[in-house]
């Protein structure tokens, strides 16, 4: 999974969020290039693992596992 470490409040909610743009940037660091438009527009603010759908061209679908951990 792609791991993001973020500052958290008392109830496990992140200060800020993990956006599709941040996911794309992190994947690039690992040599994986995708378009932001291929990801859903939602951002993630809660700790834990999130499965993010990827809609590639030509009807191909995939999934990226994003983990948000407390900093």
Question: Which percent band covers the strand fraction?
Answer: over 45%
**How confident overall, as mean pLDDT?**
92
Based on DSSP secondary structure assignment, what is the total number of beta strands? 5
Unreliable stretches (pLDDT < 50, length at least 5) are none
Structural class of the secondary elements? mainly beta
Helix content: 10-25%
Q: H/E element string? A: EEHEEE
For the terminal residues, how far apart are their CA atoms?
17 Å
Biggest sheet record = 3 strands, mixed
C-alpha Rg (nearest Å): 12 Å
Sum up the overall morphology in one term: elongated
Number of helices: 1
Strand sequence of the main sheet, in spatial order? 1-5-4
Oligomeric state of the chains?
A: single chain
Q: How would you characterize the overall build of this protein?
A:
This protein is mainly beta and 71 residues long. The strands form 2 sheets. It has a 3-stranded mixed β-sheet with strand order 1-5-4, covered by helices on one side. It has a two-stranded antiparallel ribbon with strand order 2-3. Strand 4 and strand 5 form a beta hairpin. The longest helix is centred in the middle third of the chain and has 10 residues.
């Amino acid at each position: 999974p792609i791991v993001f470490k973020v500052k958290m409040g008392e109830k496990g909610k992140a200060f800020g969020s993990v956006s599709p743009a941040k996911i794309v940037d992190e994947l690039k660091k690992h040599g994986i290039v995708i378009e932001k438009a291929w990801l859903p527009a939602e951002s993630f603010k809660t700790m834990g693992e999130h499965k993010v759908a990827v809609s590639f061209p030509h009807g191909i679908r995939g999934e990226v596992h994003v983990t948000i951990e407390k900093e």
